[in-house]
Design brief:
188 residues, minor pseudopilin epsh fold, five-stranded antiparallel beta sheet, four-stranded antiparallel beta sheet, 3 helices, 34% helix
Length: 188
């Protein structure tokens, strides 16, 4: 019995650190993939002259890129309220507004899922300085080269954290291997 317990202890000493490093590798690869998608969306926006946005589904832990017209505006609290009023007073209850945005299949052919064990912890954007922990969140890219400032926090099952800070001027993404706040990520 002592030999069996000794073997189990010995095996767990080798397996648990590898399992923890597996999750950290998944977390880091997810962060690099998101940073790559951000750069592709930025480049596509500048080249095509159309507004793009990355959609983050915090419930499903998925993300994808959508393209819109050159003159699309960011959704605000006021614009959402105006759209709700318009829906209430629309003549036909079956009338569904069509979105200005659709999947940008040249960048993401489908909705991309985070690796197993990795999730969006929260996002902070220019539209919402308070952390967004549920629903959909966006990072907008505009044809003249500006990007919506966004801070993305990822977390894995081993409680490792990675933060991605999207710069508003050049669409550059800074990667931090810990949870950082907006002040540290953007310097103000």
């Amino acid at each position: 019995m002592m030999i069996v317990i000794g073997l189990i202890t010995l095996i767990s000493l080798f397996v648990l650190p590898n399992l923890t490093s597996y999750f950290k590798v998944s977390l880091n690869s997810a962060a690099r993939e998101i940073a790559s998608i951000i750069k592709e969306a930025y480049n596509s926006t500048v080249i095509t002259g159309r507004v793009h946005r990355i959609v983050y589904d915090l419930k499903e832990n998925k993300y994808w890129v959508e393209g819109g017209p050159a003159n699309a505006l960011m959704e605000t609290k006021e614009s959402r309220e105006r759209e709700e009023r318009r829906k209430r007073y629309a003549k036909s209850s079956d009338e569904q507004p069509t979105s200005q945005f659709s999947l940008a299949s040249q960048i993401t052919k489908k909705k991309l899922a985070l690796p197993r064990g990795v999730k969006f912890e929260d996002l902070i954007t220019q539209q919402s300085p308070d952390p967004i922990k549920e629903g959909l969140a966006y990072t907008h890219f505009f044809p003249h080269g500006l990007t919506e400032k966004t801070l993305i926090h990822l977390q894995d099952e081993s409680n490792h954290h990675v933060s991605l800070g999207v710069s508003p001027l050049v669409g550059r993404t800074d990667l931090f291997e810990r949870y950082v706040d907006a002040k540290e990520a953007f310097g103000h």
